[in-house]
Amino acid sequence: MYKSYSMELAGRTLTVDVNRVAKQANGAALMHYGDTTVLSTATASEKPREGIDFFPLSVEYEEKMYAVGKIPGGFNKREGKASENAILTSRVIDRPMRPLFPKDYRNDVTLNNLVLSVDPDCAPELTAMLGSAIATAISDIPFDGPTATTQVGLIDGEFVFNPNAAQKAVSDLQLTVASTREKVIMIEAGANEVPEDKMIEAIFAAHEVNQKVIAFIDTIVAECGKPKHSYTSCAVPEELFEAMKKIVTPEEMEVAVFTDEKQKREENIRQIKEKLTEEFAENEEWLAVLDEAVYQYQKKTVRKMILKDHKRPDGRQIDQIRPLAAEVDLIPRVHGSAMFTRGQTQICNICTLAPLSEAQKIDGLDVAETSKRYMHHYNFPSYSVGETKPSRGPGRREIGHGALAERALVPVLPSEAEFPYAIRTVSETFESNGSTSQASICASSMSLMAAGVPIKSAVAGISCGLVTGETDDDYIVLTDIQGLEDFFGDMDFKVAGTHKGITAIQMDIKIHGLTRPIIEEAIAKTKIARTYILDEVMAKAIAEPRSSVGEYAPKIIQLNIDPQKIGDVVGQRGKTINAIIEQTGVKIDITDDGAVSICGTDKEKMAEAMDMIRIITTDFEAGQVFTGKVISIKEFGAFLEFAPGKEGMVHISKISKERIDKVEDVLSLGDVVKVVCLGKDKMGRISFSMKDIEQ
Predict the structure, then answer these.
(1) Which residue has the higher pLDDT, 692 or 182?
(2) Is 366 annotated as a binding residue?
(3) Are 334 and 443 in a shared domain?
(4) Annotated binding residue at 492?
């Protein structure tokens, strides 16, 4: 017999069914939020995976098109690889869950979320986040949960929790906050330049809602939770640490890691490993975990240096940013380019402009959004970290970093009416040593301005790190963390924004949550650093968007026509519009409201196409003057084409002021002549005159 639990959450009913389905999983919760239904399961292997030094957690979010009453597109008619939204949702579920599993746990764990139905007003992503937390909490898998997640919108200055589809469309904030009982453990946000104090208020308003959800989950765990199973610990033996310290003293390890040159540090550690391997050659048990032991030794050394001695591995002050550089136009012929360098992190961004018809089509569960005109893609080749491996396309990390930069820049983009282009920016990682996603935001902002995209303001991003001690008030927040401080620290708090406010946040942590003072300090420090980058670095490379798009970028002109005339422009089976395109070489986009965009590189041809469309959509009136091409000659007159699909006749008596016997005496096929409209003849045809044109 299954059990069902319900609570009211943001004005809608959240229901959890336990022991109803998927009973062979370690934990399963059938989630209902409104009419949104998600099956969340948690499973773990019986034994640890051998030969690894990390916790093998996999998070899956499966979108099924039947959930919104659709059949998948394409020939296969079956769901293929995960969509970008599914990957991003999996990452958001992963981030608050991963720190709460034991650090020495090496059993494979999979959290699976199967979306069965979608109510547009109840986000399946949020439902899956809650479902994974509940499924794991009631399972026998070791887990220091539960967690709860709330989404926050901002409409007319007021917070809206778990906003519905209509509210999301007008919200100035898309914030997701996950919490434990005491602390905030994950933050993800996109915002329309929301001030820092308002963002902090929103985060902790969500935290309060999360406490009610956690209390609800606690009642489920109390009745249905399984005892947590025992597991084989993969912790490094303490005896090994003591033996290592006798061979490599803490002072020697500090010298080895205290450098801002990544390659030099790696060489130092390689030599230390060689030395330890020789010393422990006869102890196979220790050799099996030596890599993890050296990692832990480095970690303890770096954390002690930062927390107790206030010394950073590269010698910087706690609030000091690495050396910065910015430039634009380094790549010829592309529509826009910029490079941003911060220490050993270097991003080159290239901007490409195209007609709106090249916007990305989205085939997913979010029925409200079917396309997007701004795309940011991020690439991370192995050479950027001095490694060699084949490229297999973007992974989850690359997709996540690209989406974060995209979210940071969307609030400052011009509207389609102001700038009728599809826009793609690509961040190529040339070198990486920490926070390439934030360097991508800086480079993208400059690349857009260099391409002539009239963004409302420049956007910069920076990341803060954290090292904590034994108590909540024993911590230090670091500005601009490099890779080593990210690996060995407790937090990667990324914040992007303008002078006016925040446009994006992403927070990853490795501990059991953050207190309010830590979050407030991190946001304050990122604002100081962001302002410095905007004013002292980016503005000196390019202060504002260029007044027009570049020489090699397509040009777009627009006009508006009566929506009822769209069919005249398109013609039967597209005959008319295709004739215009073939004749002028332009691209033409027409929206349902009659907005016509003409895209090309030859201004004369673009103007010609515009004239054709104007003629096609204009009701002919007496006195109007046109230029037409002779396409047919009869005994009684000549037929002229003024634009594809638009014809009229000049009677033989209206061709010349003198009397003529044959039309051919004056006109030949292909002649281009100027005529004046006389109105319609008795047969309803448009009638023109050549002889009445004023000379």
Answers:
(1) 182
(2) no
(3) yes
(4) yes
